[in-house]
Design brief:
globular; alpha/beta; about 40% helix; nine-stranded mixed beta sheet; about 325 residues
């Protein structure tokens, strides 16, 4: 796997609720005319998992990413709350800071609950929402996740080498196919050192199922067009969750199943994710504007008219 494809520019730090957040912006063309796309990551990841998809999508869009506090290059520490309510409040604050009235939002893992929560509980408006292997419906959380949540201080006190072995094994287990030592090391880096080690177990212990319940209860109230993507062999959140989510969201949105990959779809199958996402956003632009943005299809090396599934249909990539 080419690690250079998953590099992001140096972050721009934005303070929301007194906490420093690492943000990344990819701007193509005029900031006044480009449609905005915001990417949200999950646990134990960072914006880096979206780097390849975001870079490929960037031609014609203003693309914005962020590391949730407690993750990546954002602030970490016992004073930095990493629960769902805090994170969705920060997303709302970032959208206000970026002056985004109705962006396209793309979310993975717990980032899905964050994006949905900002929309359903805080009133953030989106042009569309594409949910990839998201944490929303119960049950969620692996046996390891639940064990750590019950004993965070024990895990935080592990010898550093043992801790990093746990992190690397946990990260590699998210994928169906080998990620390679370099990618595993890159995704593990934010969790190194005393601060990183404590932050790793803190964010697990502060993510609670009861915080996703208000979001799950309001799924029928989503106010924007939605789409769902899922790894065929996701062992963390099985594909059956996607079908349940599809039934609960308005209009029974189409489901893209990405075959032969696991939970870490944006890394394992970035080109297929980019293809599905580009087609989706183009379809929304056509619905809203009657035509895609200038140069939109050809710039990506694919037809300007997307290959779409009908409402409620499953698509395999």
């Amino acid at each position: 796997m080419d690690l250079s494809r998953f590099e992001l520019p140096q972050p721009v730090y934005v303070t929301v609720d007194g906490i420093q957040i690492a943000t990344y912006e990819l701007v193509a063309g005029s900031r006044d005319t480009a449609a905005e796309v915001v990417f949200c990551h999950g646990t134990p990841w960072s914006a880096r998992i979206w780097a390849d998809v975001a870079t490929q999508l960037g031609d014609g869009y203003r693309v914005l990413l962020w590391d949730m506090p407690g993750y990546g290059r954002s602030a970490k520490g016992p004073e930095v709350r990493t629960d769902l309510v805090s994170q969705l409040s920060r997303l709302t604050g970032l959208l206000d800071h970026w002056q985004l009235e109705s962006p396209h939002v793309v979310a993975h893992d717990i980032g899905g609950a964050v994006a949905l929560g900002a929309h359903l509980l805080n009133g953030s408006d989106y042009a569309s929402l594409f949910l990839w292997d998201v944490v929303t419906l119960e049950p969620w959380g692996s046996p390891f996740f639940r064990l750590v949540a019950e004993h965070p201080e024990v895990f935080a006190a592990l010898p550093a080498a043992l801790h990093m072995a746990v992190v690397r094994e946990y990260i590699s287990g998210a994928a169906r196919n080998p990620l390679g030592d370099e990618m595993i090391a890159a995704l593990s880096t934010p969790w190194q050192g005393e601060l990183g080690q404590r932050a790793f177990y803190q964010q697990i212990s502060e993510l609670r199922v009861e915080d996703t319940e208000p979001v799950a209860e309001r799924l029928s109230q989503v106010r924007c067009a939605t789409a769902i993507g899922w790894g065929e062999h996701d062992r963390w959140i099985p594909l059956e969750h996607a079908a349940r989510l599809q039934r609960l969201l308005p209009g029974k949105p189409h489901l893209t199943t990405v075959f032969d990959v696991g939970h870490l779809v944006p890394v394992e199958a970035s080109e297929r994710v980019w293809c599905a996402l580009g087609d989706w956003i183009t379809s929304i632009d056509i619905q809203h504007n009657g035509k895609p943005d200038a140069g939109e299809g050809a710039a990506r090396g694919r037809p300007a008219t997307p290959g779409r599934t009908s409402k409620g249909q499953t698509k395999r990539c």
